[in-house]
Hints:
The structure is a homodimer. Chain A is an alpha+beta fold. Helix content of chain A is 50%, strand content 16%.
Amino acid sequence: MADELELELDRLVHEPGRLAILTVLSSVRNADFTFLLQVTGLTKGNLSSHLSKLEAAGLLTIDKSFVRKKSHTAVALTSEGRQRIAAHWAQLDRLKQLATAPAPAPTTAPRPHDR
Amino acid sequence: MADELELELDRLVHEPGRLAILTVLSSVRNADFTFLLQVTGLTKGNLSSHLSKLEAAGLLTIDKSFVRKKSHTAVALTSEGRQRIAAHWAQLDRLKQLATAPAPAPTTAPRPHDR
DNA sequence: CCAAACTGGTTTGTGTCACAAACCGAGTAT
DNA sequence: ATACTCGGTTTGTGACACAAACCAGTTTGG
């Protein structure tokens, strides 16, 4: 018993670029492409594909429109997205606790060489 | 000015398996292969390659010996490793702050359609 | 008017890499 | 001797993050 700690991380969310995107969105409600570009430091291509992936996974919505003749992409978390990013930070906190709370057995302490 | 937030993440450390390994090691000082296997939930092959990578990067040392006729692999952080994992958690904390502290401009607010 | 440059993105090509499966050597029962 | 386990390492492969190239439209400038 007490086999495995449940510390699996959500890879979709954990990836640095996406973690930044989602975290920013969680405080801002809606942001446009250009803003995300600046705050995350990602390249355009990169940001674009991360957003597509997150949209496909249902974590955010992408709303395209034209503002002053130019295309404008607004992004916002879905409620699931909001939940997933919050859960991920919670999970990271839990993992971090391992840094101070030793688990099952510190080391399978076999004497250097018995016999 | 105030262009880019410095929120790049150390990919070597950030990868879930390695993050778990390093975090555990940071509290335990020395652990053996089998222990890490249990606590991280990684497969043997996986753990082996992550350890090799971390050793190659100088974040930990791998000490192989024979204990009671069986091979025994002890792993411990180097001081650099200790520093890198601590720095990473600090960096994650910083990123997390974005969830509560809006940066440069919430949204590049272009009026719906001026003239 | 035409072209060059800029804006706001998307698509494509490629190298990296995390993963599990297969393997391996040595020890330990049978 | 044969099979099984223990403690790992190597290998093959699919996924994917990245930047470069591209694209549609707009503004600038001559």
